[in-house]
Design goal:
The protein is an alpha/beta fold. The chain has one domain: P-loop containing nucleotide triphosphate hydrolases (Rossmann fold, 3-Layer(aba) Sandwich). It has eight helices and five strands; from the N terminus they run βαβααββαααβαα. A five-stranded parallel sheet has the order 2-3-1-4-5, sandwiched between helices. The longest helix is centred in the C-terminal third of the chain and has 13 residues. The model has no long low-confidence stretch (mean pLDDT 94). The structure holds adenosine-5'-triphosphate (ATP) and magnesium ion (MG). The site of magnesium ion (MG) has 2 residues, from helix 1.
Length: 175
Amino acid sequence: MRVIITGSPGTGKSLIAKQLSRQLGIQLVQIRKVAIENLLVGKSHEVDIRRLAHALAFLKNRKDFVAEGHLACEMKLPADFVFVLRTNPDTLKKRLAKRKYPKGKLGENLMAEMLDYCTQRCENVYGRKPLELDTSRLTVAASVRKLAMAIKQKKKRLDSVDYSGYLRAYLRPSG
Ligand SMILES: Nc1ncnc2c1ncn2[C@@H]1O[C@H](COP(=O)(O)OP(=O)(O)OP(=O)(O)O)[C@@H](O)[C@H]1O
Ligand SMILES: [Mg+2]
């Protein structure tokens, strides 16, 4: 079983993928770790996608894995299931505020979530609609259960998420 878990930063991919891989008893591939090990992360944290795709070519020979990372939506990895984790922008904002991101990065990430960036990117890159899971009101364990169930039942669809309504408030001039 080849499972991809992607989504905007802070949506819970690492935590959820770790538990899911344990539960399924299959290898966990952390894309960020592969990028670091292959010295593909630049000074401003940018990653060379072409070289990262090359470094992940070993996945072609694997039958079972859970691969997680937001960059999974930028390159076509072998996959039976592509999941995009989604989080309500207000909740995501609180989570990301705890990270020491450079100015502008928080806003960029929130905007990506409001605009369905990962979902639409996956649709283009993988040539099919990914399965979205809104984890905003779920515990990590509940999210893992939902993903495991979707895999078992070979679901083609989970949640249908649209956070574009948050854009108006976000774009409102302050002061
Ligand atoms: N229900 C939930 N599901 C997932 N994560 C949650 C949940 N509630 C809180 N969190 C918190 O969200 C934060 C982000 O989790 P995690 O590091 O797994 O995200 P990520 O998607 O892997 O982020 P990144 O793309 O930056 O690696 C963690 O601090 C985690 O504790
Ligand atoms: Mg992570």
